[in-house]
Amino acid sequence: MKHNFKPIKNYTTLVIHSTDNSFGFGYRKDNNLESDELFMKKFDNDLCNNLVNDFNKFISKENLQKVNKISVSTGPANFNASRLIVVLARTISQQMNCPLDSFSSFEIIAKRIASKNNIFTNKKAFWIYKKLKREGFIAGKYEIDHNEQKKEDLFIRETVVPKFIKECKSKELFFEANYEDKEDLKELLNLSNKNLLNTNLNSWQNVFPLYPISPIN
After folding, report:
1. Is residue 186 part of a domain?
2. What is the number of structural domains in the chain?
3. Looking at the whole model, is its pTM more than 0.85?
């Protein structure tokens, strides 16, 4: 996936995100961080209906019509939540004739993990993993891609999409996935804005939830 760092004006981005036990929406105008509007909520017993209701409360029809770009997280996360938010994002994208792209949940948290563990300095590739209840792990691999002049231009490239593995190899770097709702929503907005030019109007057709394992795990 190519990343474009050139600022683009008059763009409004909408993001939809979920983790193991929460979901949220984010909204940003003209890539201005001060314009951010965020909504986060823990799952309840009727996520299917409440997801749409909460979305309608979050964004007005007027602001929704201004959206030029949508991004959604595809997991690995709660099985039903991933499916529902991807369906919602695809539907909005199709109806509004608006580009849609996606990022794995691990790719969204990768920069934060790299910062906390000094990966930017040693420039090593690393894995992010999530231990399964039964056996094995879900893991994705990431490496640093950056501008030598500016640290703020550092970003993470996902080289292995999160998948099932039986064990973590001791010779490689592994960090456990941890979600921070507010920070993850902001990072999804950042990734969405950096990728503005790399989607097309029919891109919603290529966005699917990520299911490295069956729902029973």
Report:
1. no
2. 2
3. yes
